[in-house]
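Work Package 4 report. The design task specified in the project plan requires that, given a folded chain encoded as structure tokens, an amino acid be chosen for each position. We show below one input record used in the internal validation round.
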């Protein structure tokens, strides 16, 4: 596995991860991951579904054949097998199917886009490994954003400023989970929407956005504005292709987010 390009192959229901970047959920998973090249992971809950071993695909759940999205995942695996992934260049987008029914289930009609000026954001069909975030989780970004982030972080470090990635790519399913958890705590949809874009509308879906922090600072807080890291970003981020998406009094009604930076091609 050494030397393999580390990318995440993305499909609507299932992600295909490099096995060496996943944490085992138990002894059985650990034994499988130690031999696997790629693991099929359900996006909805992070469940490991199957592992690609030297001898073939090993199911990790009962009735794998009935798993929604399995055919799409296997087609993606056939199109981008581990030994040929270095040749992937173009980043495509996944179709925006199923989103409307999810939004309607949340009580969000078609007027949400008109009210906010936000547009539906497609997920990339593959993402590049960009190191790890503050919590030692793999950081996945659009290939161009991954390169730009690496260069920008190095430039800041040269100026004795440490930039920490808090989070990068988030799937539609992940954003839906944020809403479901907050609703379970009793928050109203309108209240959640002041700090979280609706599923399908978050810039994080694109893989082009980073939440950035500084050592010792709480994540995603306005206090980040007072750090040396923010001052460096304000003066230098544009030179690396990054801009702050949600300044004060932005037209989308999103709260001021000095930590949220988007890479623009």
């Amino acid at each position: 596995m050494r030397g393999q390009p580390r990318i995440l192959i993305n499909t609507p229901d299932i992600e295909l991860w490099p096995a060496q970047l996943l944490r085992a959920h138990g002894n059985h998973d650990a034994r499988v991951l130690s031999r696997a090249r790629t693991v099929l992971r359900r996006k909805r809950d992070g469940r490991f579904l199957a592992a690609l071993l030297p001898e073939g695909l090993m199911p990790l759940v009962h009735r794998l054949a009935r798993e929604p999205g399995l055919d799409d995942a296997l087609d993606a695996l056939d199109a981008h097998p581990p030994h040929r992934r270095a040749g992937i260049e173009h980043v495509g987008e996944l179709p925006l199917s199923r989103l409307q029914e999810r939004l309607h289930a949340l009580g969000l009609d078609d007027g949400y886009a008109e009210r906010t000026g936000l547009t539906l954001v497609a997920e990339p069909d593959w993402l590049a490994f960009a190191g790890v975030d503050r919590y030692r989780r793999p950081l996945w970004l659009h290939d161009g954003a991954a390169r730009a982030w690496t260069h920008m972080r190095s430039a800041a470090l040269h100026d004795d400023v440490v930039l920490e990635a808090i989070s990068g790519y988030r799937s539609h399913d992940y954003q839906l989970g944020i809403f479901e958890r907050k609703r379970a705590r009793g928050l109203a949809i309108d209240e959640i929407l002041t700090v979280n874009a609706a599923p399908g509308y978050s810039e994080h879906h694109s893989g082009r956005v980073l939440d950035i922090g500084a050592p010792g600072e709480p994540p995603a807080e306005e206090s980040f504005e007072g750090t040396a890291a923010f001052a460096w970003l304000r003066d230098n981020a544009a030179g690396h292709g990054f801009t702050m998406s949600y300044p004060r009094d932005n037209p989308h009604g999103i709260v001021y987010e000095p930590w949220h930076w988007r890479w623009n091609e």
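Helices lie at 27-35, 70-79, 99-105, 111-116, 143-158, 172-184, 189-192, 228-236. Validation will be extended to a larger panel in the next phase.
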